[in-house]
Amino acid sequence: MSADRFAQLAVELHDSDGVDETVQAVVEFALQALDCSHAGVALVTRGGRLEIPAVTDPVVADIYELQIRCNTGPLAESMRHRTTVAVGDTAADERWPDWSAQVLRLGVRSVFDVPLATSAGTVGVLGLYSAQPNAFGPDDEAIAQILARHASVAVATARHEETMAVAIDARKLVGQAMGILMERHDIDSDRAFAVLKRYSQDTNTKLRDVAQQLIDTRKLPG
Fold this sequence. Notes:
Elements: H1 3-15, H2 19-33, E1 38-44, E2 50-55, H3 58-70, H4 74-81, E3 85-87, H5 97-105, E4 110-118, E5 121-130, H6 138-185, H7 189-202, H8 207-217
Antiparallel strand pairs: 1-2, 1-5, 3-4, 4-5
Helix pairs in contact: 1-2, 1-6, 2-6, 6-7, 6-8, 7-8
């Protein structure tokens, strides 16, 4: 895989609109660049749960779900220790016998899980799968590591941008709601914000949701 191709990938990842588009680009590139039958990405949510935003085949989602339910297998190992985990042949691997047997029945023989990690922590795992045993050699592993590094930065950046967009949207909503209160009740901006904040606390509702309801209904929550 040439340096030019990876440079092109980096541009594509950083030009993607949002996290879902970013990870979809990752798994599609993995199919092109690596000797794998399927690929997928599992991401850690802010609540610490795992979500599966991108797979190239439904079988990958099944493999992830098996590990998410039991919290065991190469995915869990890769997440827990921030390390690459390889399964050369699910027919012979003895580390997770129940998981290996179920994955073998799904037609997958080789598994290669690479953590998506930044200095702030692990954001997820890139999973590569093949119907052939011992499918991933040193070259595949090297490419997977480079792909994972690009993907880690791109996912972290996309998440940050989405968070900023939500924050900006919330500020706009609160500003609109304050304007409604200021006009209707002839109060200043400080007083309008205090009213919104009080309703937010009294009703245990997020400030942006209180603002959205006021904008939509011209009424504050009861």
